[in-house]
């Protein structure tokens, strides 16, 4: 059997591109999930690892979908090879259970981990710079302008949260947070 595995890191990301690639490779069954690769408790991936048998092929679109840690990737690939499972990483090719194949896999796994670490480092540096700005606010940007929020808070003086939400489209939870922020 040919099994595919697709993963994205957040619920907001789209799996469609990976699923199309895996279907294009003729996978008999595809496991997918929206779960960060930094965690080892990926239920669909773990379930897939339990099902794979000698002669099966595991197909993954990219190495970073397989594992983000070089150590975890190497342990997993060794276990798959020991069980007679072939591994095909589409942007790399078939990973051979030979000294050269394992060497290339180990090097590329190390590069994938390095790349992820660099992304985290750059993100932290950018956040540190952004925090120096007076108007820095962590998290998602506000969907509503200060003027819209102020208007909605003004309406709260004579209307219920539900009425204000219906009139402005601003949720009760957003209004409560804005009101709390005003009182701080």
UniProtKB/TrEMBL annotation:
One of its GO terms (biological process) is DNA integration. Belongs to the site-specific recombinase resolvase family. Coiled coil: none annotated. Keywords: DNA integration, DNA recombination, DNA-binding. Residues 1-134 form the Resolvase/invertase-type recombinase catalytic domain. CDD domains: SR_ResInv. Pfam families: HTH_49, Resolvase. InterPro entries: Cry35Ab1_HTH (IPR040652), Recombinase_CS (IPR006118), Resolv_N (IPR006119), Resolvase-like_N_sf (IPR036162), SSR_resolvase (IPR050639). GO terms for molecular function: DNA binding; DNA strand exchange activity. The active site is at 9 (o-(5'-phospho-dna)-serine intermediate). The keyword Metal-binding does not apply. This is Site-specific DNA recombinase.
């Amino acid at each position: 059997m040919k099994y595919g595995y697709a993963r994205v890191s957040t619920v907001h990301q789209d799996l469609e591109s990976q699923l199309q690639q895996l279907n294009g490779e003729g996978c008999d069954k595809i496991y997918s999930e929206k779960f960060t690769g930094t965690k080892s408790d990926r239920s669909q991936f773990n379930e897939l690892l339990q099902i794979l048998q000698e002669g099966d092929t595991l197909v993954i679109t990219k190495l970073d979908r397989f594992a983000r840690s070089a150590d975890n990737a190497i342990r997993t690939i060794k276990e798959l090879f020991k069980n007679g499972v072939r591994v095909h990483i589409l942007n790399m090719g078939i990973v051979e259970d030979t000294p050269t194949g394992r060497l290339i896999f180990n090097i590329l796994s190390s590069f994938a981990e390095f790349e992820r670490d660099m992304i985290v480092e750059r993100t932290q540096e950018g956040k540190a710079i952004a925090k120096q700005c007076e108007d820095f606010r962590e998290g998602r940007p506000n969907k509503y302008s200060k003027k819209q929020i102020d208007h909605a808070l003004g309406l709260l003086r004579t209307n219920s949260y539900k009425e204000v939400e219906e009139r402005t489209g601003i949720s009760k939870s957003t209004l409560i947070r804005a009101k709390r922020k005003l009182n701080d």
